[in-house]
Input
Amino acid sequence: MNQYSTYFRDIHSLSEEEINAIATLYLCYYDGSDQSIVVSDLKKKTQILLLFHAGVMVGFTTFELYDRIWDDRLISVIYSGDTIVHHEHWGQQALAFAWIRFIGELKRVVPLKPIYWFLIVKGHRTYKYLPAFTKSFYPHWSIDRSDLKPLLDFLAKDKFGEFYDRNSGIIAYERSRGHLKSDFVLPLKNETMKPSVQFFLERNPKYGEGDELACICDFDDTNLRPFTKRILQECSMEKTA
Output
């Protein structure tokens, strides 16, 4: 764990060399895309969280932070883009810890503003972040959070227009803009028994062809896993120390 380090960067501050490294890592795991598509998508985000191991970038997650009016209230939306971690570093927690601390800082600055995490999921490994961080979300395999669906429909339609299907919750383009390479598309044997993985495969059967499942959760204190809440509390204590 001590060999890992993380850094938040504004997208516009990235150098050409850094952008190329990000695109190269992405293209190691995804077909149906190219350098220009990756760079274009990257520049639509506002920030990126970079993961380094022994001084080498081995992962990242991109996101866009913006506000919307929903139900006559101002809300914060964290829209997650791509999350890629080199397979030799699957299982590390540094990226997740740093991302949660970012949420903690956001909650500290705007404690009364609702925060929603809006993400589109290309693979079962990314979907597993939802139950890892929060107790419930939409869509969920056993908990009814259909109260979140109208907001999800609003955000997904706003972001993806005609490519978003309200009935299925799937974003499907005419041709893939990125899908997992064959070496990584199938879940591992120990993953296939997990409810989250089974559910994702059922809800997004064509994920291997580039379809993406729209998901949403609220970062209300009552909806956080003990692990998530502990990291947020540690963040708050660090700020007040």
